[in-house]
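Q: My collaborator sent me two sequences in one message, no labels, and asked for predicted structures for both. Can we handle them in order? The first one she listed is below.
A: Yes, handling them in the order given. First sequence, followed by its structure tokens:
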Amino acid sequence: MSQTQTPLLLVLALVFSCTFSVVGQKGMSNPNLKELPIVLSWDNDGARITVKTDETQSGNLLEMTPFRYLDQIGNDLIRVASGSGNTPVIIDLSEYYGMTEISENPDEGNPKINVHMPKLTLANYNEPNSFILELKNFSRTNTEATKQIFLFRGLDVFYVGTDDCAKLSALQNRIIVDVEKCDVKHLLLKGGILELEDVEEKIPNLCRKYNDRYFSQETSDAFVCLADCRKEDPNAYKNLRHSRSLITKYNITDFEDAPISYLGNMLITKKGVGLNLKTEFMANAALKKKAKGKGKKVSYNPYDRYKFFPWYEFINLSFTKYVDENQLLIRDPYNNSYIYNSKVHFSNVELIQFFNELKALISARVNTKS
């Protein structure tokens, strides 16, 4: 697994009691994900990092580097004092998930989860294989304990569980959880790493399956699998130029990524899916009016936004029919929504089936060390 591989982001909303059993749920649960071996909790004085062990895990997983805001209480609990400001608590699971080599000395025990805080606070912690979690308004009495930032390293997959009362928002790999109105004081975390070695074979096979099933024109295919662009193919040059144009539109610049297939203005690469979308306009206000029964429809901007969904975002999307047989509605767990016009070759029902199969294909390749 490369250290520079794009993370896969997944956000689940769950509630659990002190025994970590699920009480309620918000968002979409992915059956391929398992809980991380740690749980975040808090009180008015600060946050806590607790080891969550089961029959297959031993205790003493936490390894803390001393810092003035960190206090290790036994092997299974670290308390984060309030007042750290924007200095993140770095929870590094790279060793735990095998992304970094560990010592061969048997006396050093099992792989550890390393917890520390940087001596200098950087402006941007957007790193490969990492996610930022910002916990807001968790104290009702201590003005210094209104925000705590955590940086999780060594993950492609990250799902945050909390109560329905929490406000969730996200931008790329940064998740903000506002728990001001929550009585439940725990977060349940899920995650893992991706093993995508075979997707450049599996995705074209899935595309061909839908070409054979639904597309009847004998002279061409709907999905164009770029691995099939041979020199003897008269359309090879045109196909490659089109894929390069899509890469430019979706601003895909990662040198490790590679285009696999495209369908009109949809591009599938080794690291995600790019789509030409309508974006929601004044979404919150429109949805509130609709919820009150006034019959107001959500408005969408023109088809002028090219958005790339890395696997950590795509795997968490839901797809439903919208208005007619061509348009489909795409939602994420943060109340963001988009409209995609599927009139190219496939109906929205057929394309929804394809997207769901693609999600299942990728999520089955999450290694959760279970």
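Q: And the one she listed second?
A: Here it is, processed independently of the first:
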Amino acid sequence: MRTVRTIVSAMLVTSIAVGVSSCAPAAVTEPDHKAKTTACLIRSTTVVPGTPENQLAADLVEAKIVYGLAAREVKIDPATEEVPARLLQALQAGCVLMVSANTEYISDLAQFAKDHPRMIVLFIGGNISASDQPANFRWVADDALSSARLAGFFAAGKSTSGDVHLFVQPVFAQSSSIRTSFIQGVKDFDRVSQTTTKTVFVSTPSSKVLTAELQNLDSSNVAAIYGGKSIWQSLDAEQLDAPYLIGADLQLGDSVLALESRVQASVERNTSKYVLNAVSSLLDRKFDSDPLYRKPGALKFQTVELRLTQPDSIDGDLLEILSAYEQELAAR
């Protein structure tokens, strides 16, 4: 039986498109807070694959199911709207918890939280100093680069061909830095294991490019794919003698993916507990945190992770050195 997290992510696409209110289960305990109490994902109208936003949207749907409060998206058009004015409009509409990962909004959200102490902001990623952080602003680190490095290390350990293939969609968030970090992870594995692994990089603007490239690979190969839904949409789930696939931002294990039988490892965000904690504090009227709520180590606090759906199928020695490597990265 799938967990609540699984149900949540499976509902995500339709729930966000038509309004989260349609996703409530058939029997919900009547909440004791005002229906206007709303948690909102603050994001741009421009969608960038690879940010924490997809996972945060799923987390808010989960919070709706668990707590019964309203949840929705607030999209800001950077070309036509002023962020502070749009945030005020959202607050007046009931958005008393604002969740965001758009680093362009971090300063505006911090100032907005300072000006409106009876609401909470939860921000994932970016950087903010403690001196600029009001008590009702919660900050949690995001680190796509360390997780890419971890994925590169794992890919090199999983490959039996001496090669790993890295496919990155150019519009994927931090695509150039992810490429560099992934390759560094491959080199780190070679250093530890005294092997030589070649990283074959392919810029992948479309699913057509990806599909054509994967047809040339077999089960001795490992391919890591960093791309949005458009990159994955035409992948053949029934391909025989296919390479081992590592994904990113797929909510692997928490969603009903046709590809899940092929994609057994993925770089994922793990932010649910922070969203649910913020909702709980909001409903308990605990707006301020003292000391300030700060989680600076993404790997340490597992805000990001390399998720393996079938760890029992991985060689035990590889799992052991992967765990040691993750601890090494987390300690930096």
